[in-house]
Write a structure and sequence with these properties.
Length: 317
């Protein structure tokens, strides 16, 4: 299949691009490089530098490469930042995303896999199922929920079939392809940088959550497993649009992440107990039975394994 991967120079997008190419698909990466890295794009992929705001470039790209399906990763992802600059998130994640759907409709492209998020749900103290209440704790999650609704309408109106993959916290590494945000706000790389002496301390955002150790709980899913979920979703997308959770089902607290990095690195480091970060839900853990049953996907890489791989990459870079 000829697949357009928006945001293919980002963390999950670049790993998915590599795995699609390994499976014999043809990939065109469309990325503005505002957040992505050109060197993360596999040399076998075509690359177009562009923003989704540029409808005419998008249209030309669809026509030039004869695009047959889309995997849409491009978007802003930091939940905390979305509470400070909501309109930036709305523009990028909703309005520019709508351009993509319009260009798909115009070019008769009928398949899209969308990077949705666990952030669409209300926090719950047990694993989340797809039908659970959608009540984002932050504006980022709201933009993902709105886009899922737009996808349903574009399915009704233009018969564009979609799969929304609601992933939980992406983690791990695939060789050189690791999480590299600038500035970095994500827990795992920040704890690793602290262990490596590249930062003075790590702050724990909130220690009085209603969790066993008082810190926030997330479900960390390895990026290689996430990439597989996209490929399975696309290869199996026929007449029915759908939404799936993609997670491991195992909740890990912030304190547990810190302890795991201490163990892997053999280093003790400065941990500061700080205020909660605005827009952070207490707990997000996936029930991924639906994707397991319908697509045969399940997480294969365990948390410590992925953490070790990430740690080794940063230690040697
Ligand atoms: N945290 C800290 N200190 C830090 C950074 C984070 O304590 O310096 C905590 C957060 O409060 C949270 C946990 O670590 O409890 C994970 O935070 P991240 O910033 O690593 O990730 P988020 O859960 O905020 O968000 C990520 C992605 C979103 C995605 C979400 C799905 O950025 O795009 O996972 O759960 F939607």
């Amino acid at each position: 299949m000829k697949i357009l991967v928006t945001g293919g120079a980002g963390f999950i997008g670049s790993v998915t691009t590599k795995k699609l190419l390994d499976k014999g698909h043809e990939v065109v990466v469309y990325d503005s490089l505002i957040k992505g890295h050109r060197e993360s794009v596999d040399s076998r992929a075509e690359f177009v530098q562009g923003c989704l705001s540029d409808k005419s470039l998008l249209d030309k790209t669809f026509k030039k490469f004869g695009i047959e399906a889309v995997i849409h990763f491009a978007g802003f992802i930091e939940a905390g930042e979305s509470m400070k600059e909501p309109s930036k998130f709305f523009k990028n994640n909703v309005i520019y995303g709508l351009n993509l759907l319009d260009v798909m409709a115009k070019n008769n492209v009928k398949k899209i896999i969308f990077s949705s998020s666990a952030a669409v749900y209300a926090s719950k103290d047990s694993p989340l199922e797809e039908e659970d209440i959608k009540k984002p704790a932050n504006f980022y999650g709201e933009t993902k929920l709105i886009f899922e609704k737009l996808l349903s309408w574009y399915d009704d109106i233009y018969q564009i079939k979609f799969v929304a993959l609601r992933y939980f916290n992406a983690a791990g590494a695939c060789g050189e392809l690791v999480e590299k945000h600038n500035p970095e706000t994500h827990l795992i790389p920040l704890v690793i940088f602290t262990a490596l002496g590249k930062r003075e301390s790590i702050k724990i955002f909130g220690t009085d959550y209603s969790t066993p150790d008082g810190t926030g709980i997330r479900d960390y899913v390895d990026v290689k497993d996430l990439a597989e979920a996209h490929i399975l979703a696309l290869e199996n997308l026929r007449e029915t649009s759908n939404a799936y959770n993609v997670g491991t089902g195992k909740g890990i607290s912030v304190k547990e992440v810190v302890e795991a990095v201490k163990k892997i690195s053999g280093k003790d480091f400065n941990v500061i107990e700080a205020e909660k970060r605005e827009g952070d839900p207490t707990m997000l853990v996936a029930n991924s039975e639906k994707i397991k049953k319908e697509l045969g996907w399940e997480a294969k890489v365990n948390f410590e394994e992925g953490l070790r791989e990430t740690f080794e990459y940063f230690k040697n870079s």
